[in-house]
Amino acid sequence: MNALEHQLDYPFADTLPEPGLAFEVAPGVKWLRMPLPFVLDHINLWLLRDEIDGQQGWTVVDCGITDDTIKARWEQVFETQLEGLPVLRVLVTHCHPDHIGLAHWICAGGEKKRWDVRLWTTLGEYMSACVLSSGNGSNAGGEGAARHFARHGVSDEASLEQLRKRRNYYSNLVPSLPGQYRRLREADTVAIGGRDWRVVTGYGHSPEHCALLCESLGVLISGDMVLPRISTNVSVFDMEPEGNPLGLYLESLGRYEAMAEDTLVLPSHGKPFRGVRTRIGQLRAHHDARLAEVMEACAHTPQSAADIVPLMFKRALDMHQLTFAMGEALAHLHLLWFAGKLKRTIDDKGVVRFSV
């Protein structure tokens, strides 16, 4: 546990759900943990006891990627953890593969086609997932991503070729999506199991991220917007090359600062914790420090995003990590550029650089 984590309260200490089993964290709220084949090696998923149109069952919050191991663990959950009741809906916080990848399969009842239920999410997340899954967008791979990162200073041809080969990265993890969905919007109230859960949208990490707050339980399902150990990735990708996602993310954090400090935060990665306002303060301080480092570097000599990556990430990065590191470096440069603190120039090789 690092120094910042000591400022938070972990009510379940080091307890983690066993594979394929659910652990109750609040009345009617159960925690699942599924593996991921990345450095970030897990995702937390949630089961909420529910009733819709007089039928008893469960709401699933987030799904995991499309992967045989995760499907097998979900099958175990369906058979042993649902008290003989069906899933009634699948609610997805956002469009990233570890959250929406298996939505189509769970909505359709898994391998045994046990039920046919609706996906609930925001318009921004649903439409973004549709575009990316269809192969019409790239972001983390493909020719568009390679051009985007070359423009921002990645000159190693082997790395660029690796990016080009990742053109099916998203669609491999999210091969299909439900053809219909139920739209969620900021401040909507969703009745789940006789309790009201308020939609809290957030921006910057994804197009229209949907967190859920139940004030009567004192529980926040935070998705990726508020994580206890790592900072949320905020990236400029090639689909929106002049975006200012860090500005949007920092603005969105204000929606959590009014929440009670003892709210039980259920994050998508890491362990459930209390201390939401403390954590937001830590996240703001983290980005302030990174922005100061970027400003200092740009004051000495013009910097590309590729120049900023080793300043912000002082470890070796594989290609999966590099795409997010480049996106994050560019997000910090863009916030300062939009604020008028940096100017942007393009050299004779077409590389974008920023200076004071």
From TrEMBL:
Q: Which organism is it from?
A: Paraburkholderia caffeinitolerans
Q: Which SMART domains match?
A: Lactamase_B
For the Metallo-beta-lactamase domain, which residue ranges apply?
42-269
User: Know the name of this protein?
Assistant: Metallo-beta-lactamase domain-containing protein
UniProt-listed Pfam families:
B_lactamase-like_C (PF21221), Lactamase_B (PF00753)
